[in-house]
Structures are given as structure tokens and as C-alpha cells.
């Protein structure tokens, strides 16, 4: 509970994290202690056509509910809140009527696969091949990295780009509104900001914009080239602001008092900031709904060229109860596979099932697949950058599993630091919002607030896992392009 000293009420920060599975609100004091919290489960609407959507009104009510719940839990007054920071899942978007504020459709999740065929068509098109060739020539003569990046463009379903193009092609109401200048586009952060400010602010930040696939990080603006290529009107896109800056004030009609909104940030960048990965070569590994690895490249842009259990906490003991996975391999591609595989048509599967297989083998195979995917991502980072890794910090719900963490440390051959506070997206949003209002003075002060829980050091060598990982990669190859070869995604 927030303290009162000599009539002075402690200044606090609210941080809301809209994740892929859970929406959380935390109340932080200046010592970075969580004094109040509330959460609600994200309701994803799925169907057999590969659609994954969120109902905007439900999400809004949940957002308001967790803020009010966290404030009650903390036993504070909202007038004590110095600022609000919001962290959100990336690349989930919506379009709404500029005049009425009414959505044209549900949020289309980053996990949505309805544009998979459009992605495949574009990636194999003559137009994209021509773009690649032209930009290679431009890079050769100018040596500008933005042309190198353009020469390597390949679309994925995870980016907003082709999912938004799909909407404009298949939802006439959205296309008409865009043509008439009556359409607003936004990722979750933008839409929540619009709602919180009662329609007065349409904006996003650089971290969320960069996850759309239509933002040019070299020019720090929306890509007029990509928008033109995909027939996306730039007029519907929000202005882009610094992540830690003034995004307006929460309308008093919502919570009864105005609250400064001082940070919008994408979840992975928020976790990076929450982990205090401020130095070049600092690595952040988040294991939650998906696995994400991030490296601090400094001020230089890097051009990338590439029901078995009732409680998750039981899985570590189950995995350790058997000496190995018994020749069972699990491919975790429930919505395709991202880098370095980049196959939206891959299927999830167990390989190598035998009469002697028991549930402990299956659980161990699942956990090993997480560590193997971590290794794939880590090796991709090492291949693509010449930056020396200085430290690795892990967060997300899966980081609480000691088996996965130890195996990952072994595969990396590196020490991995897990913090006491694993909700790093929320903490990062709080840090950014607090810095903006002077609750904390510097990044150096933030470093003193981060506390380690467990440090995992390598206890085995990569060679001990090489044969097993090679077999797992063979299983992955067997699952590749499955839905494309068998009648489309989720074909009946």
C-alpha cells in the first residue's frame, strides 16, 4: 500500500501491459515495488480459417477493469498517479471511423493467418523480385543500408503490412472510408490512446510503428515506398512520437481524474528497457506466448538478412524425471514459424511416438523444443551481427521453468540472468512513464532497481546436445509447408 509521510502522498506510476494472453496492470512506487496489481485473460476469437481476432469493446472494458482493480488492490487514490505507461503486443491492429470512433472490424491479431496466401503470392511475385534487384544495384552504388534492407524484403503474416492490405482488399467499407479520409488505423496502443483521450489523440510510438512492416527505420517515418507498393494510404496512419513523451491526458470521465499518459511502447522493447539492457551487446530473451530475442545494437541500425499437465510449474519436475525425451521431438509451430525458418504453413507435431512413450517424455520434448528454438534465434543473432554479447537476461512466464533456462544456458554457452520481476513489459512501461515525469532521474538509477533472482551458468557443452538438436531440426523439416501441401491452413 502506498505510504503517507507528513501529509505527503507518495507519487506512483501505473503500467498496463496488454499481452497476447493476459492483460495486466501494476502500480509501482519509487522503489519499483509493485504495491497493487490486477489482471484479466485476453479473449482471442479463433475460427477454422486461421483468423485470430480481439473484440475491441471487450478489450476496452478489460483495460478499464484492470486499472480500477490495481488501484483498489494498492489502496490508493488515482490522484497519486504521476503518469501512465502502456505496453502492448505488437502488430495487432484495427481500423475505425474517424468521425464516429466506431471500429470497422475487430482487432486482427499478429497471430492471424488469413493473409498467408497473399504473403506467399507477394513473396514469389515478379514485382518483389524486381524490387530486390533494383535495390541491390542501388546499394552497390550508394552503399546505403536502407537499400540493402529493401533488397531483402520478404513479407510475413506477423507484420501488419499484408494483413492491412488484405483488409483494404476484402472490406469495402474500410477501403471507402480510407479513400474519403474518414479512416483511422492503429495498433492496440494507438486505439487505447484514442479511447483514453476521448478521441482527441491519434498517435503511436516508434517501437510499435517499427513492428508493422511499413515503417522505415532509416528515415524514421512511415515508408511511402512500401505503402505505395501495397496500396495502403499513408493518410490513415498515426503520427509517430518518442516512446517516452507526452501522449496527452486521460479524459476525467473515464477514471474520475486526469492522468498524464507518458509512455507507449511495444512489449518486447518494453521488456528490453525493463531488463535495463542499455549497453551495446546486451541481449534480452523473452519466453511467453512466443519466444523473442533482442540485442542492443547501439546507435547503429542492423540490417537483418534472415494438456499433458494441470500446472505449468509441474513440467520441470516431469522433464527431469526421464533421462531424455525418448526419441520424441516436438515442433511448436501453432501459427507457423518465424525467424530463422519463416514458414507460415508449418504445422505443430510430435514426432517419434512409441508404445513406451509416456507423458513425461512428451513434456520433456515440449520443453526441449523451447530451448532449441532459443538456440536457433541466438545463432541467428550471432550470424547477423558482429556485436560482442555482453550479457543475457531472460524474462516472460516460461523463464520460471528451470529446465528450459538451464538447457538454454547450456546451448548458448553463456550465463543467463533471470530477474525477480518477470513481467518486464509492464516494468519497462513504468520505467519509461516514470522517467518522463521525473519519478526516476536516469537509466543509471533504474539499473539499481533491477534485482536478479537466479543466474544460470552452463553445466554442459553444446556437443552434448548436437545430435538431439539435429534430430529435432529434421522433425521441423518434416512439418514445413504442411498446410500449403494439404489443402490450406486449418483445412477441414
From TrEMBL:
Q: Which Pfam families match?
A: FGGY_C, FGGY_N
Q: Where in the cell is it found?
A: Cytoplasm
Q: Which domain of life is it from?
A: Eukaryota
Cite the CDD domains for this sequence.
ASKHA_NBD_FGGY_GK5-like
Q: Which residues form a coiled coil?
A: none
Q: Which UniProt keywords apply?
A: ATP-binding, Cytoplasm, Glycerol metabolism, Kinase, Nucleotide-binding, Transferase
The EC designation for this entry is: 2.7.1.30
An annotated GO cellular component: mitochondrion
Presence of keyword Kinase: yes
Domain Carbohydrate kinase FGGY N-terminal, by residue range, is 13-274
Q: Which GO molecular function annotations are given, in alphabetical order?
A: ATP binding; glycerol kinase activity
Per UniProt, residues of the Carbohydrate kinase FGGY C-terminal domain are 318-436
Q: Report the InterPro entries cross-referenced here.
A: ATPase_NBD, Carb_kinase_FGGY, Carb_kinase_FGGY_CS, FGGY_C, FGGY_N, GK5
Q: In which pathway does it act?
A: Polyol metabolism; glycerol degradation via glycerol kinase pathway; sn-glycerol 3-phosphate from glycerol: step 1/1
What's this chain's function? Answer: Skin-specific kinase that plays a key role in glycerol metabolism, catalyzing its phosphorylation to produce sn-glycerol 3-phosphate. Involved in skin-specific regulation of sterol regulatory element-binding protein (SREBP) processing and lipid biosynthesis.
The UniProt entry's sequence similarity note says: Belongs to the FGGY kinase family.
> What is this protein's name?
Glycerol kinase 5
